[in-house]
Design brief:
alpha/beta, 6-stranded parallel β-sheet, 16% strand, binds thiamine diphosphate
Length: 551
């Protein structure tokens, strides 16, 4: 069933109840590469990032009991981020149910609140149906994560070959895009026509839908600025005259905030308009007209009263809206001189950043690290960022000059330890691209064991660790909100470069900002996995673009 859905990679970890499945993977001619991981959590994150860069369903697997509980973080992150994933966990034999076998748990109940669709197979004849449903659910409507529980004994039973079929269209997402209601398209076009200064705020839905071309065409027609959420970073090239950058509490700056606050109509597109993006409902302020467009009818109008809305695939919504607006405007193109104003905003934002990026202060400023990566990353490079120092910095200040899935971060739950394993999935999904995972030392500690997989698979990923020997994000919140009563946020500094070397990576430690560029260039040029450990400025002392800590 995996083969019929076009699956080429499965990320997972072995277990007793998975033995027949593994034996099938070993014996059959299926063209599937199994990537053995060192933690089921990693398998989930790898499948997630693989799906993000390929647009194909990410598949992860693990055994019953601990495997099922450990795989959950990756499953829920994908589900909440609308990424198509099929997670498979083997289970105790059907015949052992109720007899207290080792690793038994109610998998159906465990996965139910975290997945879009979920089943534990009860008899072998259900297997084809269950797999088809899992792939269908993962890839259609709002994409998401699904789960299949596969009992040990059923894996050994047989089925007639003619029951094994699939619709290959369900191997990638979004499958069967849905178009918006024409009346609602017209209402949205009316609202846009009535506005003088509309602005787009685009989320990950625009990237999943591959709608950047249509977005940019419409924005140019309207001369409307295009901002993004953290997950939408990459919807428009950052050097495009209408690009605003990331807005919101995590990565937004005064300049990007101004671009949204200047609007007389905000168009939320492929995003939830949640608390981070809207800075807890203050941006835009209540009362500013809002259009909300999303594939999920539940998010449209959830946080703001709307003047108009549409439900559908972002690309099809933009095509329909663009056509309707073009019809009304005739040959006219709006020119509100936004390009000039935005260029001023972008320069003001860059000026401050570049001043700090030139600083020779020790510990090394995060700005310096970003500038070094920015200068050395090839145009098709992919950045994967963890929470803590990386997410706000790379959201706020890292520029991508082409569109698409160039920036990956786990914004649904923001769990530490995502980027290291996720980079493995990205490296498999985009083997020609330079993949860089940037993390705090807290995240490194969560995921370090997976460096063995990276070395075993010879993946030329570069890891960059911001080493500040603390859970800096929380420490920064204790500084700003709790009068610097630092409590239980500091830990001992580890020598991450030596740890990496012990795994077999080539590694550098940077303490002197003057060595930053050289270390990154050397790490990118090395033919194999590399790690750069940067003794970094503590987050609570930095100029990180996080609104609640900014003066
Ligand atoms: C699994 C998990 N536990 C706790 C948190 C809460 N949390 C958010 S940021 C953060 C600190 C991050 O520390 P580190 O990775 O060292 O990066 P830094 O903030 O120091 O740059 C913590 C503990 C989380 N996001 N994920």
């Amino acid at each position: 069933m995996l083969q019929h859905h076009g699956v080429k990679h499965v990320f997972g970890l072995c277990g007793d109840t998975s033995l027949p499945f593994y034996d099938a993977l070993a014996r059959l001619d299926h063209g599937i590469d199994h990537v053995l991981t060192r933690d089921e959590r990693s398998a989930g994150y790898m499948a997630d990032a693989y799906a993000r860069v390929t647009g194909r369903v990410g598949v992860c697997e693990g055994p019953s009991g601990g495997g099922a509980t450990y795989i959950l973080p990756g499953v829920v992150e994908a589900n909440e981020s609308s990424i198509a994933m099929v997670s498979i966990t083997s289970d105790v034999p059907v015949t052992a149910r109720g007899r207290y076998p080792l690793t038994a748990l109610d998998q159906k109940a465990l996965f139910a609140p975290l997945t879009k669709w979920n089943a534990v197979v009860d008899e072998v004849g259900q297997i084809p149906l269950v797999f088809r449903a899992a792939f269908r659910a993962a890839t259609t409507g709002r994409p998401g994560a699904t789960h299949i529980g596969l009992p040990y004994d059923l894996q050994k039973q047989s089925l007639s070959a003619d029951e094994i079929w699939a619709n290959p269209v369900h191997g990638s997402f979004p499958a069967f895009r849905t178009a918006p209601d024409p009346d609602l398209v017209a209402a949205c076009a009316d609202a846009v026509a009535a506005a003088k200064k509309p602005v787009f705020v685009c989320g990950g839905g625009v990237i999943i839908s591959g709608a950047s071309g249509e977005l940019i065409a419409l924005a140019e027609l309207l001369d409307a600025p295009v901002a993004s959420t953290v997950s939408g970073h990459g919807v428009i090239p950052d050097n495009h005259p209408l690009a605003v950058g990331v807005v919101g509490a995590n990565g937004g700056t005064d300049q990007t905030r101004d671009a949204v606050l200047a609007a007389d109509l905000v168009i939320f597109l492929g995003c939830r308009a949640g608390s981070t993006t809207t800075e807890h409902g203050t941006m835009p302020a209540k009362g500013v007209p809002v259009i909300h467009i999303d594939i999920d009818p539940m998010v449209v109008g959830a946080n703001y009263p709307i003047v108009a809305g549409m439900v559908g695939d972002a690309r099809l919504c933009l095509v329909a809206l663009g056509r309707e607006i073009a019809r009304r405007m005739g040959a006219d193109r709006r020119d509100t001189e936004n390009a000039q104003r935005l260029s001023g905003l972008r320069s003001a934002k860059r000026e401050r950043f570049e001043q700090l990026a030139r600083s020779n202060e020790r510990p090394v400023r995060p700005e310096r690290v970003l500038a070094a990566i920015q200068a050395a990353l090839p145009p098709d490079g992919i950045i994967i960022a963890d929470p803590g120092t990386p997410c706000p910095y790379f959201s706020g200040y890292f520029d991508f000059e082409s569109t698409g899935r160039r920036f990956i971060t786990n914004r649904a739950h923001g769990a530490l330890g995502f980027s290291l394993p996720a980079s493995v999935g990205a490296a498999y999904g985009a083997p020609a691209a330079k993949v860089v995972a940037v993390m705090g030392d807290g995240s490194f500690g969560f995921a370090v064991g997976e460096l063995e997989t990276v070395v075993r698979k010879r993946l030329p990923i570069t890891f960059v660790v911001f080493s500040n020997s603390s859970y800096g994000w929380i420490k920064a919140s204790q500084k700003s909100g709790y009068e610097q009563r630092y409590f239980s946020v500091d830990f001992t500094r580890s020598d991450h470069a030596r740890i990496a070397e012990a795994f077999g990576l080539k590694a550098w430690t940077v303490t002197d900002p003057a060595e930053m560029d050289m270390a990154i260039r050397a790490a990118f040029a090395w033919d194999g996995p590399t790690l750069v450990d940067v003794i970094a400025q503590p987050l609570e002392e930095s100029a990180v673009p996080v609104s609640r800590w900014m003066g």
